[in-house]
């Protein structure tokens, strides 16, 4: 196993990314950033504030973030690890840009999916299937973003995946174009609204789930196989030694203050529900960080207090290689929100996971399970 993957199987990896200042709004910088640390240099707040993380990204692009924070977890997913990546921060801090990016600078979601597809396509000893689902948590209801009916989903316990949504639409993908189409389809269904801080403010948390199935094969017969080409092959076998891993990419809606966003009516209610679920997440992080290195201190963790924390249960303290990218603004006017984000990020660094690669097991492949009229 790659030593970097083994290292990531323990504590949550935490990265900080700053959003460029909006000088047209009079924003001025009050933070000093280095490669892995931040210091508050605000004359109005003389108490020293120092934070350290795995890496700090300043004035950089999504490719740099992906190469330094996400590429190794993608490799871990191919080796059988469950992987979770979530973007956290106040509203308007650049979380969705980090996750989705632009046509010129694609975000980490598309880059990760493309990297997985490319690696699977080059494999010689294993055959792969990749399928994706996309859903959102909106006002504590889980909605399928790939369903025309906007179907509500329920959470169940799965012995491999942990808490997961059942009944979500799944799409098999084999190319960047197919991935891009699925992402766009989901984004078209996501709840957004305009506020004073963000013209396209996310009103829900989204989870893009990539499932990677692999099985051994003869030399030279490996690669990424379209579903319709393997039905007959898998159906004629009595057992199928599969390895299944999951990659969850979570774009969290931003914490917000109504006094800054100007939210009213339904948008205000949405903001309240977002803050409530993020508070539950903060409590879970805090309880897990208290138990670092001492299992006897690990009391009941309130994962069930929200749909978000329930779905993140495996990512936080469970069987997952987890990465957190916390987005901030270095502007003076947002210093309190930035400090809050950095305290949250500091708590994440203390969370210990127990990631283990999944071993091959006998099971019916997804392609066969989802085939119409499958036995």
How would you characterize the overall build of this protein?
This protein has 375 residues and is an alpha/beta fold. Helices cover 31% and strands 26% of the residues. It has 11 helices and 18 strands. The strands form 3 sheets. Strands 1, 5, 6, 7, 8, 9, 10, 11, 14, 15, 16, 17 and 18 form a 13-stranded mixed sheet that branches. The protein has a 3-stranded antiparallel sheet with strand order 2-3-4, with helices on one face. A hairpin with a 7-residue loop joins strand 8 and strand 9. Helix 4 runs antiparallel to helix 5. The longest helix has 26 residues. The radius of gyration is 21 Å and the shape is globular. The two termini are 37 Å apart. About 2% of the residues have low confidence.
Tally of DSSP β-strands:
18
Number of helical regions: 11
Instruction: State mean pLDDT (0 to 100 scale).
Output: 84
How much of the polypeptide forms β-strand, as a percent range? 25-35%
Task: Please write the string of helix (H) and strand (E) elements.
Answer: HEEEEEHEHHEEEEEHEEEEHEHHHEHEH
Residue runs with pLDDT of under 50 for 5 or more positions: 193-200
Structural class by sheet pairing and helices: alpha/beta
- Radius of gyration over C-alpha positions, nearest whole angstrom: 21 Å
Q: Tags for this entry?
A:
three-stranded antiparallel β-sheet; alpha/beta; 375 residues; 18 strands; 13-stranded mixed β-sheet; single chain
């Amino acid at each position: 196993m790659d030593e970097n993957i083994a290292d990531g199987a323990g504590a949550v990896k935490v990265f900080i990314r700053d959003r460029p200042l909006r000088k047209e709004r009079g924003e001025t910088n009050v933070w000093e950033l280095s490669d892995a640390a931040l210091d508050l240099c605000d004359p109005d707040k003389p108490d020293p504030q120092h934070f350290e993380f795995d890496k700090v990204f300043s004035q950089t692009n999504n490719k740099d973030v992906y190469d330094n924070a996400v590429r190794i977890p993608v490799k871990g997913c191919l080796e059988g690890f469950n992987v979770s990546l979530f973007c956290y921060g106040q509203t308007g801090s650049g979380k969705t840009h980090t996750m989705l990016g632009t046509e010129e600078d694609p975000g980490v979601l598309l880059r990760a999916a493309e990297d997985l597809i490319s690696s699977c396509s080059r494999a010689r000893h294993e055959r792969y299937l990749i399928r994706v689902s996309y859903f959102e948590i909106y006002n504590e209801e889980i909605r399928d973003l790939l369903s025309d009916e906007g179907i509500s989903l329920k959470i169940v316990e799965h012995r491999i995946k942990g808490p997961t949504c059942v009944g979500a639409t799944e799409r098999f993908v084999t190319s960047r174009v197919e991935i891009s189409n699925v992402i766009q389809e989901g984004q078209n269904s996501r709840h957004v609204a305009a506020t004073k801080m963000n013209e396209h403010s996310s009103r829900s948390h989204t989870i893009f789930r990539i499932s990677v199935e692999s099985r051994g094969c003869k030399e030279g017969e490996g690669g990424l196989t379209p579903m319709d080409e393997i039905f007959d092959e898998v159906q004629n076998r009595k057992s199928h030694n599969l390895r299944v891993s999951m990659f969850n990419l979570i774009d969290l809606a931003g914490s917000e203050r109504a006094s800054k966003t100007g939210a009213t009516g339904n948008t205000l209610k949405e903001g309240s529900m977002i803050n409530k679920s993020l508070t539950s997440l903060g409590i879970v992080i805090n309880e897990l960080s208290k138990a670092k290195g001492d299992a006897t201190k690990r009391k009941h963790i309130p994962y069930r207090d929200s749909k978000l924390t329930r779905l993140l249960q495996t990512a936080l303290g469970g069987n997952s290689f987890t990465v957190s990218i916390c987005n901030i603004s270095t502007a003076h006017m947002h210093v309190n929100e930035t400090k809050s984000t950095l305290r949250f990020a500091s708590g994440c660094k203390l969370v210990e996971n127990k990631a283990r690669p999944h071993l091959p097991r006998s099971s019916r492949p997804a392609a066969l399970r989802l085939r119409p009229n499958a036995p």
